[in-house]
Amino acid sequence: MRRIVLDTETTGLEPEAGHRVIELACLELQGRRLTGRHFHRYVNPERAIDAAASQVHGLTDEDLADKPRFADIADEFVEFVEGAELLIHNAPFDVAFLDAELALLGRPPLATFCAVSDTLAMARELHPGKKNSLDALCERYAVDHSRRTLHGALLDAQLLADVWLAMTRGQETLDIGIAAGPAAALAGAPRAGRLVVLRASEAERARHAALCERIERDSRGKCLWLHPATA
Prior knowledge:
- Helices cover about 40% and strands about 15% of the residues.
- It is built from nine helices and five strands; from the N terminus they run βββαααβαβααααα.
- About 25% of the residues are buried.
């Protein structure tokens, strides 16, 4: 399945008040792998940026003065995302802005040519009662977000891709991430009538220990790997 991780930055909080998109980033996933294809543009909103918004993303009117308008990138954007499932954190916010931009050009809304999945709603279902901001999810799933001193559509899309992959691991297929691993090599090898033992590497043991720590924290001390006697 083709998916697009999408994020925007804007001049303010409400498209109904005339606020516009100023940065748009899309990263392509095919199945569960980033393909390397992406769409990233800064946009001249043809209006001033609210001071509060500028403090969040660091972009100013001067930064965007020579950038293309949304009308100039609309065809390329639609072609890139058409037919894909969009993964967006707090999707109603970004979709409202993009639909407003498309409406100004007399174009139909996103839902007519894309499916949309809200990763914030997904996270709230998986982690009820907990913080599910992008920063909180990065910490929960051990995704490095140390570069995120300001919001930025491209960086946030990259982080969201890593978070979504971690958050949905194991939900789709049982062969995730093993296609090129030792098990795949053994699958086609002739059997010699003896048991083959594959021992975990130091790196794999470290990742397992980190996973146990996260489960221990999130389950409030109920990780069965750490407390097998209570199983």
